[in-house]
Amino acid sequence: MIEANFKYMRFLFKFMSDLQSIYKVLEDSKAVYGTTKIKSNFIFPNARSALIFGFPIPRAVLKSTKPLHNYWRTANLLYRHLDTLAVKIALILEEDSYDSLPIFGCFPFRVTGMYEYAGFVDLIRLATKCGLGKISKSSMLINPEYGTRLILAGVLTEAKLEEIKKSPGNGCPEDCYECINACPAKALEPYSIDVKRCIRTQSFSPLFVHLLKSENRELSPSEIEILQHVAVIDDHNWYMCIECTAKCPRNL
Asked: Looking at 66-163, which runs of residues are DSSP E strands?
């Protein structure tokens, strides 16, 4: 009994030490992060907690004379950094015998139809549960420090993490409609978005279109999904519009 208790205490000490090292990495890298308990998720049914974290697009990117070009490249690099960090954290938790699934900032996701995309995990919803912000009028997360500039990733884990909740701020000002007025697709209403209308306007990849046209047969839905991931999403090269982000007063 004494030996069993000693082993448990040693395991608990290592787990707590590993958690502190994870949080230190996030803090040292200036990440915004929080944790929340979760009941279930179809992609990883054994998960009991979620660790959600994010980095902001630098403010000057949106103030530049070429915000779209700079946003694309910056997001490209941030997604890779976030994804690598998610894998690293998942492996640290796995060493403590808690299987953990990295949830990447952009893909994979399901392509359910033309202009119909569904992520495996709703990072924005989980981020609000962690207190990282509130839902904005553009349906993005609005953080009290970084506005809607945050790009998110996370980890679902079997570990029952103690909840870390931040102060979510006040959300969007009641009298501000800059993002809605700026949307060229007219896809925004306060706190809701017509995703199909948005995607038809803001996404286009010449490489993806070329590959579709070069096929001599009709592709299956799964083949189109893989092709989009490889030719579009993995290189994060399909941004054609960031007006809602660029015009948000909280981002400037």
From this structure: 100-103, 109-113, 116-119, 134-135, 141-142, 150-157
